[in-house]
Amino acid sequence: MSRVSIQGLQIKMGSLPILENLDLEVHEGEFLVLLGPSGCGKSTLLHSIAGLLEADQGRIDIGGHDVTWADPKDRGIGMVFQSYALYPTMNVEKNMSFGLRINGVPKREIAQRVERAADMLHLNELLTRKPSQLSGGQRQRVAIGRALVREAKVFLFDEPLSNLDAKLRGELRRELKQLHQDIGNTMIYVTHDQVEAMTLAHRVAVMRNGKIQQIDTPQAVYARPANMFVAGFLGSPSMNFLEGELEVGPGGEATFIKGALSVSLQGYEFAARPAAGRRAVLGIRPEHLAVDQDGVQGATAQVTLVEPMGSHLVVWLSFLDQQLSVTMPVGGEPVPGQRVALRFDATRASLFDPESQQRL
What we know:
The protein is an alpha+beta fold. 24% of the residues lie in helices and 34% in strands. It folds into two domains: 4-225, 3-Layer(aba) Sandwich (Rossmann fold); 240-352, CATH 2.40.50.140. The protein contains eight helices and 20 strands. Strand 4 (57-62) and strand 5 form a beta hairpin. The longest helix has 18 residues, at 166-183.
C-alpha cells in the first residue's frame, strides 16, 4: 500500500489551464473516487498520476517517492481504462501476463500471479478464451486482472464500468468493492456516476473546472455540501433550491422566508451568525420535503407530474413558478392538478449564499 500526495499540480493543454494549483492527499489503503461532470479534469488528474500526462508545475509523490518526472512503468501503478484494450489474438491468460512476460518475470511467478488474480475475479474457467469469446463484463474483469498481476502499490481506474449495461455495472461495482476489501491497496477511481461514487468510495473528491470543490466521505458530501454545485450534482432528482431571505429573532433564531413559506432554521449550524434580511438559498433534497394532501394552510403547491419509480414515486410540484421534486412511498399519491401543503425537514436543509454559492 502507498499514499499518493499531489502538491500545486498544474496542467495545461496549450494555453488552456486544465488543472490549476491542485492539492490532493490520498491515504494508504484508501478507495478515493474523483467525481464530476465531463471536462472537469478528473481523468486529466488520474492520467497525470499515472505519468501519461506531464505536469507543467507541481509535484506528485507515490509511496513517499517523487515520481513527477518518472516513466509510468517506474511509478508502481496499475491502471484500468474505460476501453478494455485487450490483445484480440491472445487468450485471457496471455493478456493478463503480457506485461510480466515483457519484464522478464520468471514463468513460475507469472503463473502464480495469474492464478491469484483469476481466483479473485472468477476468471479461472476463461483463461483459454480469447476476448471475442467474452462478454463486456468478463473483458473488463480481464483488464482489471492485468493490472492486479503487476502487484502495484496504487491502482488507477478511469471510468472502467461506463461501457457496460446497468446490470453488469452493478455486479462489477460490487466485485470491485469486494476486491478492495480483500487486497487493501490504494485505489483512485474516476467516474461521473454518483451511484458508483457513493457506493465505492471511502472519500469522494467532487471536481469542477479543474478544481476540487469538496472532499469528504460520501455521507458528509451528500448531507453537508460545501456549495450549490456539489449540492446540485449529487442526488437524483437533484436538490431543490429556493431563494428567499432570512429573518433573525432577538434570540438569534433564524427563519427562511419566501412568499407564504416560512421554515424555522432552529438547530442549523451556520458558519457565521446570520444577518436579518440577508438573501439566502434554501436547499432541500426531495426525500426531505413532504406534501400534506389534506392541509391547505401555509405554503401550498400544485402537483404537475407523478413519476412511478418502482420502489417509490417522484412527485413534481409547481411552487411560485419553480419546479420542486418530492420522493414519497407508493400508494395514496396525489394526482396532477391537486394542491398540496409543503412540509420541510429543516434539520436536513442546506443554506447557501446566492452570489458566492458557498454554504452558509
